[in-house]
Specification:
Elements (H helix, E strand, L loop, with lengths): L13 E7 L2 E6 L18 H11 L17 H4 L5 H9 L1 E5 L5 E6 H4 L2 H7 L3 E9 L5 E6 L10 E2 L2 E3 L23 H5 L6 H10 L2 H15 L12 E11 L5 E12 L11 E7 L1 H13 L8 H20 L11 E3 L2
Amino acid sequence: MSLARISIPRLFLLKSVPTSSRTTRLRSSWTPPRSQLLSPPTTTTTAPSLALRTAFLSSLSSPRRCLCSSTAMGDAAVDAGMDEVQRRLMFEDECILVDENDRVVGHDTKYNCHLMEKIEAENLLHRAFSVFLFNSKYELLLQQRSATKVTFPLVWTNTCCSHPLYRESELIDQNALGISLSSISVYTFFNTRNLILQDFLTLISNTSSGVRNAAQRKLLDELGIPAEDVPVDQFTPLGRMLYKAPSDGKWGEHELDYLLFIVRDVNVHPNPDEVADIKYVNREELKELLRKADAGEGGLKLSPWFRLVVDNFLFKWWDHVEKGTIQEAADMKTIHKLT
C-alpha cells in the first residue's frame, strides 16, 4: 500500500501504560518499555511508517483511558492447592484485554481473566486462539486437557486452545506502514475517504500475526510440536468468535477467539502438565464423539468453545480443508457472538 493512497484526517493510536503491577491505563502515543515486553521485536519500522506515525500523533485528541482489574495477592493463599505449574502460569502470564471489537484496552493476569466474579463484575474479555490441526489424511488432532488444568479439566477439545500474551511478539497487529490496527476503530477506517476496501481487508488479516506466533509457541508447550513443523505462515485464520462460558462456580472463560486452521503432518510429544490424551479423528469418529458427549457416556465432555465451533463452522470448513480451498472460507471481518 503506498502512502499516496491514504488520507487519514484523525487516528487514535493507543498504547498501554502500566500504573501499578496489575493495573493498566491507556494513553495515546506511548510505547511500552522493552523490560515489559518479554520477546524481542520481530518487525522493524520503516522511514515512511515513522513519518506517518508523526502525522497521526500531531492530530491526537484527548487520550482514551481504560482501568483494568487488579490482582489481590491474597488470592494466592486461597488457591494454595493449585497445581504448581498451573499456579505459576495463572499469576505470571498476562493476557491481552480487548473490547468487543477486538481493540486492545489493557492486560491482566491469566488468574484474573478467568475468575467468573471478575468477568461478570468488570466484563473482562481477553484475546484467545483455537488451533485446528489436520494431518495429510485430513484427520483432526484432538486433545484431552489434563486433570490439573484450572478451567475445564479432562474435557476433550480441538488441537490447542490458549492465549496470546502481553508481549511484543504476540501483540503484533501492524501492516507494512506500522499502523496499529487494534487501536484504530473500524468507523475511522470507513470514514477515511481514500482508503479502499481491499486495503482494509488486508490490514485486518494482518492482525492475526501475533496470534499465530502464540499458536506456534503453545503447540510446542502443550504438545511438543516443533516450531519447524508448524511455520507461522501456514496457519490460516478463518474467523473470530466471542463467547462466555463458566467452568465451575469460580472459573470460566470470556474470550474473543481466533480460529486458526493448519494442515501439516507433525511430530507430537504431549506435555502431561497440559494434556492427558490425544487422538486423530475423521468426520465420522468426531460425530460419534459428539453423540457420546450428548448422551453423557463414560463422563465424556467437550469444551464449550470447541462445541461452538463444531455446531457453527467445523464441518463446512472441513470440506474446504479437503478440497484445498480453505482460504475461501475465511471471514475475518465478522466477530461472531455465540452462546
